[in-house]
Design brief:
4 helices
């Protein structure tokens, strides 16, 4: 009985540790992705982003996610991969800011444009 428990525990640890390491190595990237997605959503809700801008920014976020998935595919995100992803996130963050503050607004129902304050 002790052997069965030990083997079960060993198998669990063998599968859990690589998954935990991957999550740990990309936690900061994941948090930033979530923050940027929230910024895009807020801009869309406020009318600061129109539909086209929102789609374009979301595609940029998808690109960063694909980069992260590719980097983590081997179970380890290297420092070089992390820097590359973070540089891309910096660029996407600047795009979000520029699009939200470019003076374009989303069309409101009835054909009126939203007022920017």
């Amino acid at each position: 009985m002790k052997t069965v428990k030990f083997v079960t525990l060993a198998a669990f640890v063998a599968f859990a540790l690589p998954a935990a390491a991957q999550t740990e190595s990309t936690r900061r990237i994941d948090q930033r992705q979530e923050n940027q997605a929230n910024r895009i959503e807020q801009g869309q809700k406020s009318g600061a982003l129109n539909e086209r801008e929102t789609r374009r920014l979301e595609r940029g976020q998808d690109r960063v996610q694909r980069m992260e998935n590719k980097a983590a595919a081997d179970g380890k995100v290297t420092a070089k991969e992390r820097r590359r992803i973070e540089r891309t996130q910096n660029a996407e963050s600047r795009r979000i800011y520029r699009q939200k503050h470019d003076g374009q607004t989303a069309a409101q129902p009835g054909g009126k444009k939203a007022d920017k304050k």
